[in-house]
Amino acid sequence: MLRPFSTLDQKGEKILSKRDSLLRLVCKNKFIYISLLPTFVLLIIFRYYPAFSALYHSLFEWRGVRTEQFVGFANFVEMFKDFEFQTSLKNIAIITVTRVMISLTFPLLAAELTFNLRNLRTQYVYRTMFVVPMVVPVIVTLLLWGFIYRPDGLLNAILEALGLGYLCRSWLGNFNTALPAIIFIGFPWIAGLGTFAYLIYLAGLQAIPESLFEASTLDGATRIQQIFSIDIPLLMGQIKLILILTIIVVVQSYYIQLVLTEGGPGYATMVPGLHMYYNTFSYFRMGYGCAVGTFLFAIIFTLTVINRRYIRSAVEFEAK
Amino acid sequence: MRSKIYKGLIREVSKHICILTLIFLTLYPFSFLVVSSLKSHEDIIHNMVGLPQVIRWINYIVAWKKVNIYILNSIMMSGATVGMVIFLASYTGFIFARHKFPGREFLFYAIIALLMIPRELTLIPLFIIVRDLGLLNSRWGCIIPWTSGGLVFGIFIMRTFMASLPEEIFESARLDGANETQLYLKIALPLSVPIVIAVGIMHFVNTWNDIIWPLVTITREELKPVTIGLMSFQAIDPYAQNYGPLFAGYLLTSIPLIILFMFTMKYYIRGLLAGAIKM
Predict the structure, then answer these.
(1) Would you say B174 and A75 are in contact if contact means Cβ atoms under 8 Å apart?
(2) What ipTM describes this predicted complex?
(3) pLDDT for B181
(4) Which of A231, B81, B197, B243 could tie B267 with a disulfide, CB 3.0–4.6 Å?
(5) Fold that domain A77-314 belongs to in CATH
(6) CATH number assigned to the domain covering B58-278
(7) Residue of B26, B101, B160, B264 for testing the chain A interface, max A β-carbons within 10 Å
(8) Nearest chain B residue to A194, by CA
């Protein structure tokens, strides 16, 4: 194609040559693009497309086949009016708040205790023992706790042995105890997510300069005073990180209920993720499921942005 | 002076007591599992907290016949996924770390942005895609989505690590006439072994523990991995009313992870901590 003369003025020539060199660069690197192709094909088909498809289909009545009907925000309206979903919101709020309080206390307590031992060798041994439950598959831990809670299970047997037999019940089958029982799984909560928090806190404590402790000891501070005036302020970055990660993980998780209670009895242990799961795979209401998924995504996306903006940068240490 | 020493001693002992209590409570359910797996059913019901009256190794034989197929499936599926993730993530990470090309940062952020998307959002359309590709009730129906899931984090970690390798090594290899493939295979990859192991083991553990995806894609008994296999072992099996073999089965399915962790625990912890900081 012939170019009109006017593009050959000084400015135009510059643009032209820049574009040419970009093209040349792209050609020169064509093998790079070709070798990136498999990765991108996988990510586009199995990650990008599903994400956009979910956002799109949250506005449709969709049963997983080609016929789909645009319904606007009806799915979202229905969702917030649904008693099951309302209950699941209440439950997830309770679970999240308690889990956050747990992950800020028990693993921190364990980390402080480990850190304050004099002998480094024993420190290492105890650390290893706290980390051991990590090797047990999650499903085994869950099924084991399922057994502990059974009417003929371990918890009732222990209560019986302690002479507290009148407290015995089917812990997961009872309206009042099902949700607390779900939260209690993993007591004293240093396994699972707690192990992670424990390791983060411990690494943070070990990164505090020795001289700070020495100086305040000379000033007559006891160890307990130091914990509140040195350790916790300096661990604030880690504490915020654990806080936000716990929320992100807990808000979207429903596998415990899926394995142990199916959300019951009634809706006593129902959570939004499980609500989505059953609407999708039991009632085949894919569009509605996508709306619940979009709702969860909005919450988690917000938290992730907060995490990246304000919290991540506060934790700077070399992972050991 | 002496009372000060005593005080210090008491304080030290009480710390040990507190820690040991926490450790006991943490590990007790698992020791209960080990002890009970050697008991008969009646022994478990009537003597729940005590030691076995007779040690029944046969529980393990009964359980093995049932769970060996689950273990094999899990090893195959998680193993294949980890292999693919390590291969794709390491060379993609290598390209992003050591090459300059137009659109590099844009393409990289296009990958990293996926870290913001939770699995709950993509679950339903991904299920539809896998169904339409005819991959339901197939090992590939887990392997491919798992691979694309683990890839994002893998690429991120690998690029960060490989970018920190000194340029001089690559420069001198180039002067000696090495091509790009050789640079990747002979220099970048061997130097990245610790991070490769960390990424591999983290992804292995994540997929080994995944319950939801196999549950929606696999219904055929002979294809089930450990997670959902144990659920059906519990639910429909005649042994369900016989806790001994059931508990033995729980332990047998834990063994591969235990062996893996014996060799790679420190890499796993390092990866876990590094991942949390950088994500």
Answers:
(1) no
(2) 0.88
(3) 85
(4) B197
(5) MetI-like fold (1.10.3720)
(6) 1.10.3720.10
(7) B26
(8) B26
